[in-house]
Amino acid sequence: MKHSICSIYDGLKLRPVYESDLELLRTWRNDQQLTKYLTKIPHITQEMQRSWFVKNQIDTGCYTFAIERIGEVSSHENFIGSVSLYNINGDTAEFGRAIIGNDSARGKGFGFLATVLLLNLGFSYFGLRKITASVHEDNISAIKAYEKAGFTVCGKHAHPSGGCELEIAVEKAEFYDKIGFLRQIIIHNPATVDDVKLLQFQNFGNALGNLVVIDGNDGQPDRNLPFEIKRIFYIYGTPADVTRGQHANRFSEFCFINICGTTKVNVADTSGQNKTFVLNSPQEGLYIPKMLWKDMYDFSENSVLLVLSDKYYNAAEYIRNFDEFLGAKNVL
């Protein structure tokens, strides 16, 4: 699962898409009436839906959420639709691919609530400044919901199936001026200092010397790292009185390995809890999930700290102010 982010308000929840959701998603996407305002695509087979799911798990520019009713609803009616933030690029992204597929859920305002929940995630959790979208000029209910959420029309273009699509956008300030109930929205991002783990790597060395192998996770059961490696960097020559890091990452996960010397790493979560780890073995890695604050300090003179990450560098995902980090609590 690419993310574990959930957002809840007034009986509605955005959560990750699970593999068990795929057949219902496929059924909805193949319903021509439900998708008449979406981009036309060929009939989706089970294999195509599964392939989409696998690719979506590794696409760092797209976050798709299931829309779920919570409360006094029978279990088979909980999952009612989906919506996405995609083309995430720095501080901008597109909103869309939205569908309310459950017949009993349409016309009850769930589309508007899902829009607000995802826009709030975009601005408060993902750190976006501007979110754009496209909506067909005949999709009156969607246009009304988007206007209510703060979107304004900034252009239009022809739609392949006829008519025009309106190009709409909303900026962070406009959104928060428009929506008055945001402090009741609950965002769950469960990473805590207890999720930080020390990983042990096997030494395959012999009389010729030591050999430690680290395999990025590609879905095979024998890999010793919990993520696919996208970026590698290392820190060395750091004076003992210097503190490195001093930031949190919204999306990136890390593994720290002191391949030479010693380093201390202090990790904090948004509740204020913290833990300190001493790294002094090339056979040991410190796994740090996203949205945890990191301070590296007390470097020995010969310290070489190797860092592996599951994401490419993106300056927009860094939180460098500790008070701002603590403000990203579960309840906004």
Structure overview:
This protein has about 325 residues and is of the alpha+beta class. It has two domains: about 5-190, Gcn5-related N-acetyltransferase (GNAT) (Aminopeptidase, 3-Layer(aba) Sandwich), CATH 3.40.630.30; about 195-325, Sandwich (Jelly Rolls). Helix content is about 20%, strand content about 35%. The chain contains six helices and 19 strands. The chain has helices at about 20-30, 45-60, 110-125, 140-150, 170-180, 320-325, and strands at about 5-10, 10-15, 65-70, 80-90, 90-100, 130-135, 150-160, 165-170, 185-190, 195-200, 230-235, 245-250, 255-260, 265-270, 275-280, 285-290, 295, 305-310, 320. It has a nine-stranded mixed beta sheet with strand order 7-8-6-5-4-3-2-1-9, with helices on both faces. It has a five-stranded antiparallel beta sheet with strand order 10-16-13-18-11, with no helix packed on it. A five-stranded antiparallel beta sheet has the order 15-14-17-12-19. A hairpin with a 2-residue loop joins strand 1 (about 5-10) and strand 2. Helix 1 packs across helix 2. The longest helix has 16 residues, at about 110-125. It is elongated, with a radius of gyration of 23 Å. About 30% of the residues are buried. The model has no long low-confidence stretch (mean pLDDT about 90).
